[in-house]
Amino acid sequence: MEARFNLFETPTAAKVAKRLYSVAGIFAQSTLPKALQEILELRASQLNGCAFCVDMHTKEATAAGESQQRLHLVAVWREAIVFTDAERAALALTEEGTRLGPEGVSDETWAGVRKHFTDDELGTLVCLIALINAANRMNVIVRNPAGAYEVGMAAALAN
């Protein structure tokens, strides 16, 4: 399978894509654990059917020290005992922020993340969820295939 279009071969789309990858690098400076960031990006990518990003975030999560068991259970996190209350709150926010219905994110979900995260971490969560959804949509539209991603490639694309 090949992508139907390479965003990096057009001047405007290449600039946008590089800036998205560059913005993603800011998350590394936050206090939100890298492994949690990758789990959340993986979950949004699963929901959006973005094969490229599922591949990327599974590999990046593994490199960040995430266990295979937890990665295998991300799609069914509600029934899994391996996630903390804070992680569950962040996963709920990720799902509601990805599926945005008419009411957006519920007050219950918002209250859940407020209990577990600082204002800076909460701001990071909101931006992370918005950015992964944008990246998912770009990759799904052009049918970017999965399987060839190697750890660190995204960081290299930001340059």
From TrEMBL:
A GO MF term: peroxiredoxin activity
Full protein name: AhpD family alkylhydroperoxidase
Organism: Kribbella italica
InterPro entries referenced in this protein's UniProt entry, alphabetically: AhpD-like, AhpD_core, CMD-like
Domain of life per record: Bacteria
Keyword match Transmembrane helix: no
PANTHER family found in the cross-reference section: 4-CARBOXYMUCONOLACTONE DECARBOXYLASE FAMILY PROTEIN (AFU_ORTHOLOGUE AFUA_6G11590), BLL7811 PROTEIN
Keyword Oxidoreductase belongs to the record: yes
Swiss-Prot/TrEMBL keywords: Oxidoreductase, Peroxidase
Domain Carboxymuconolactone decarboxylase-like span(s) in chain numbering: 25-96
Gene3D superfamilies on file: AhpD-like (1.20.1290.10)
